[in-house]
Design brief:
This protein is mostly helical. The chain has helices spanning about 15-30, 35-55, 65-85, 90-105, 115-125, 135-145, 150-165; strands at about 5, 10-15. α3 (about 65-85) packs antiparallel against α4 (about 90-105).
């Protein structure tokens, strides 16, 4: 990790370890002339930089925030891949899948269906929720437990199924 001083503050700020890894891996990919990895890591770092300057003032993202950005980017690739595949454009679909695979290397391991189902049951028990109208309560309890490890739509589908009966 690199430590930098903020001008005039006397405080040291540490950069995100994940961002450092992305930058180091980009350099390695460029030297190896790995076009897919280079393109994908540049895009990921650009998305992180965009997020850092979004809002009222620029800030350094934490590793958790970077994981959220990368999760969004992986989801975009998955959706684009499906769209290309449905349009009969296999080459573009494969390119999106390749990029998605690179991004997923930097994300926490995804929860299996069994693990996710167990967490959903625990969240329902913990929140005392009953019926489909209580989905918000369950999602509030479940959100922090599955952040970055399961796609929101997949989580919502399982919660809906469990609450429905």
């Amino acid at each position: 990790m690199e430590a930098r001083g903020l001008p005039g503050s006397g405080k040291m700020v540490t950069m995100s370890a994940l961002k450092d890894k992305l930058k180091a891996d980009l350099t390695t990919a460029m030297k190896a002339r790995d076009d897919v990895r280079t393109r994908t890591l540049r895009m990921a770092l650009a998305a992180v930089s965009t997020e850092e300057v979004a809002g009222k003032e620029a800030r350094e993202l934490s590793d958790d925030e970077i994981v959220k950005v990368l999760t969004k980017e992986a989801k975009k690739r998955r959706e684009a891949s499906e769209a290309f595949a449905n349009a009969g454009r296999a080459e573009q679909a494969q390119a999106e899948q390749d990029e998605q695979a690179v991004i997923e290397e930097y994300l926490p391991a995804q929860l299996s269906d069994e693990e996710l189902d167990r967490l959903v049951q625990e969240a329902i028990a913990e929140s005392g929720a009953e019926g489909p109208k209580a989905m918000g309560q369950v999602m509030k309890v479940l959100g922090p437990k599955v952040a970055g490890r399961a796609e929101g739509g997949r989580v919502a589908q399982i919660v809906r199924a469990r609450l429905a009966g």
